[in-house]
TrEMBL record:
Pfam families referenced in this protein's UniProt entry, alphabetically: DUF2931 (PF11153)
Protein name: DUF2931 family protein
Origin species: Pseudomonas marincola
InterPro entries documented for this protein: DUF2931
Highest taxon listed in the record's lineage: Bacteria
Amino acid sequence: MMLSSCAALGNQKMPYDAWRLGFIAPDYMEVWIETAQVVDVENYVFLGVGGGVAAMNYPDAFGSDVPKLFEGDPTGWPKHPSWGAGKYVRGSDLPKKIYVRWQSMVEPQTYEAYIEIPESTREMMRNSVEVFCRADGKVITDYREAIVIGLAPGGIAKTWVTGPCLKPIEVSRTQATVDPRGPYEGKSNGHYRPLTDISKAYVEKFGIPYESW
């Protein structure tokens, strides 16, 4: 695998202490992230910068019964994607490449993607923007300090860059490849994480809108 060395601290060249990496998925299209890793612009490698579930609006985390009416819509991506489920990548400079391997539980299928982060994206992350922030009620200096990756069935990985009070900007769309080893690098005898009853019922009724992402 490309990312195999231990993480090390580089010389940061960004105007904040850490940038954030988050993951989202379309409604009902449940995702389990097995691993996410980063190579920064100084060629340092950071392992274990993401894992677990990707953020979704539906199914509701507090709901357990299959609803009579499905309120979510997995078609396409939201105009203003959230920051997603994730964390700050500390000790890293801005990213050059992000590797992510995930289970698309509704198919089920295991994908891996190498997402290139171009210099134009890093430039947006470095540059400050004067913007009115509703949370503060005043004009502030803000940065696009977060990268959000949307993971969808068919192996689609879409990337945005965003900030606390700034609109997300779409920067890339990557087609992942199927990992022939299957889930957990072939260590689970082909067993995927279980899909919730709500998502299973949605897919059985409406199918998967592959062409919308």
